[in-house]
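Training component of the fellowship. As part of building independent skills, the fellow (R.M.) carried out the full modelling exercise for a liganded target. The chosen ligand was zinc ion. The inputs are recorded below so that the supervisory panel can assess the work.
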Amino acid sequence: MINSRPITYIYDDPSEPSPLTPAHFLIGKRLLSLPITRVSREDFTGSRPSLLKRYRHQQNLLNQFWNRWRKHYLLSLRSMNICPPSKVTCQFKVVDVVLIHDDLYPRNLWSMGKIIETYTGRDGCENMEIVSRAKWGARESKSNLTMVTPVPHIFLHHTAMRECNNFESCCQMMRTIQNFHMDDRGWDDIGYNFLIGGDGRVYMGRGWDRVGAHTYGFNRIAVAFSLMGDFSHKLPSELMLNATKSLIECAKNENHVISNYKLHGHRDAGCTECPGSAFYNLIKTWPHFEGGPIPGYKGN
Ligand SMILES: [Zn+2]
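Fellow's submitted model of the complex:
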């Protein structure tokens, strides 16, 4: 199979999609005959070195063509075909070549297009699923103190507890964390604004505009996202990292944080290992990161 089309004909239906060949990209259809070349008598004469040089040049051109065909055309088309519909961030970029879906015509007659501009969706929070408090079975919060939004800081944490890897186990974990925060720590609710499960879902904690209990000294001017698990010696999965990045994008696009927000790990604002060294080293490379100790840092 090439580009979801069989390499050879399977049926004898004339409208059966044909495989894409280099010729389709050069002249828009299948090449059925060799191109006409005008060969002059001089082409056959010449010394051995000049013929060799000419041969090498032609081979070189041919190799370059096949390399480009393989690396650029085939791969870029394929990456669009395997783009999964949900969860994983998979966005079209400017200059990507795409097939334009058209119900009126069979697939082999769809036109090709090049993306010249992209637009973010209205809510800016695509590519992720936010699980409501009702869905994970949250207890009622004891307070509803709200922040002045947009806030200037985002803090990343890890829960330093067990990981979860599906909807049921993550909901169970959310209830465990909430009980721990409310009953053992004596807080009003689960501490973080949002948590990210090993299943790639985002679980609503205190939400976007309620004061949390996560980063001493910054609870009224920051939102906190916590990744479920311990990331001191291992990185969170791609699924969790993508969800975290989408959540940060969402915070920015929906104006929950200021556009030049600062991103920190919990340890940048206080004496703690959180969010785990392995994860912390990664977020150092993310946009808007500011390492600590930041002004307002609380030591022991
Ligand atoms: Zn923390």
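The panel noted the following from the submitted structure. Residues 157, 266, 272, 274 surround zinc ion (CB under 6 Å). Confidence is low (pLDDT under 50) at residues 78-89.
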